[in-house]
Amino acid sequence: MDLGLAGKTAIVCASSRGLGRACAEALAREGCRVVINGRDEVRLAEAHDAITAKGAEAIAVRADLSTEEGRAALVAAAPTAGILVTNNGGPTPGRFTDWDEAAWHAALEANMVAPIMLIRALLPGMRARRFGRIVNITSAMVKSPQLPMGLSTAARSGLTALAKALSREAAKDNVTVNNLLPERIETARLRSMTERLAAHRGIDFEEARAEMLKPVAAGRFGTPEEFGDACAFLCSAQAGYITGQNLQIDGGSYEGLI
Questions:
Q1: How far apart are CA 155 and CA 178, in angstroms?
Q2: Long-range CB contacts for residues 157-163, cutoff 8 Å, separation at least 24
Q3: Do 162 and 206 sit in the same domain of this protein?
Q4: How do residues 204-255 score in pLDDT, each as one tens digit?
Q5: Whole domain around residue 211: which residue ranges?
Q6: Looking at the structure, do residues 208 and 95 belong to the same domain, yes or no?
Q7: How far apart are CA 91 and CA 93, in angstroms?
C-alpha cells in the first residue's frame, strides 16, 4: 500500500534508538524526509547514517527536548513539517513517597510540556497548509495505571487529554492527532524494566522475562518494526479520518473493553 507520504517532512522526537527510531525508519522508508533527534551524539550519528544508507533523506538534531532551547532547535530544522511524532524518555519507576516536587516537575516537563510545546509550534502551520499528522508516543499505563509508573502515567495522561481536545479542533483542517500506547515492545527500556523486576524479585533475568510475558495474549513481545509501521499508517493519507484515538500496541495485554 502506498501511504501517500513521499515528499513529506517528519520530525520524530527522541529517535536515535528504540521506538522513536523505529518510527523514523518506517517514515523514511515511505519516502519522508525525516528529522531525527537525540542527546547522545554518537548514537544519533549512527541512526542518521543507517537511515541515509538506505537512500532516505535525514537531518540529525542533537537536542534535549526537555529544554526550551532543545525544542526550538528541533522546530528550526523543519518549521514547515507536516508530520510530528512526539516522544521522550520516561521517568524511572519508583515509589510515590520518594517523588519530591522536583521529580514531578521533571516528569511533567519531559512527558507533557515538551510534546505540547512542539505541537503548539507546528500545529498552526499544519492547519494553514491543510495537512498534518501528529502522533504522540505515550504509554499503555495511560489506560492501565500502575503506581510504580506514576510519574510517567500522570504526565502522559495530561498529554492524552490535551491531544483529544486538540483533535476535535484541528480535524476540520485535515490535521489528525493520535496517540500510540506501547506495552511490552522489545527495546532497551523493556530490558531495563526486566532487570529491575529480576532484582526486585531476586530471580534471574530469564525468569523475570517470563513474568513480563505472562500478560501478553500474543505470547511474545512486540517488535519496534511493528510499532513503527503502526505510526507510519497513522501518518498516512489513508488515516485522515482517524483522529483523537489511543491505539494500543500491546499484543492483547490490555484486558479492558475501551
A1: 16
A2: 158/108, 158/112, 159/86, 159/111, 159/112, 159/115, 159/116, 160/136, 160/246, 162/112, 162/116, 163/134, 163/136, 163/244
A3: no
A4: 999 999 999 999 999 999 999 999 999 999 999 999 999 999 999 999 999 9
A5: 187-221
A6: no
A7: 6
pLDDT for 152-176, tens place per residue? Answer: 999 999 999 999 999 999 999 999 9
Residue type, position 62, single letter:
R
User: What total number of domains does the chain contain?
Assistant: 2
Please give the model's pTM, rounded to 2 decimal places: 0.96
Q: To which H or E segment does residue 249 belong?
A: strand 246-249
CA dist., res. 38 & res. 63, Å (int): 6
* Within-domain flag for 89: yes
Dist. CA 224–CA 214, nearest whole Å: 20
What CATH number has the domain bearing residue 77? 3.40.50.720
**Alpha-carbon distances of 43 from 9, 75, 159, rounded to whole Å:** 22, 21, 28
Q: Would residue 198 count as lying in a domain?
A: yes
Residues 48 and 134 occupy one common structural domain: yes
Pair (229, 213) in one structural domain: no
Establish if 249 belongs to a structural domain: no
Q: In what order do the strands lie in the sheet with 246-249?
A: 58-62, 33-38, 9-12, 83-86, 132-137, 175-182, 246-249
Cα–Cα distance list, 190 to 57, 84, 193 (Å): 30, 24, 5
180 is written with which cell numbers?
500510540
**Residue whose entry in the numeric block shows the C-alpha cell 507520504:** 5
**Is 4 inside a domain boundary?**
no
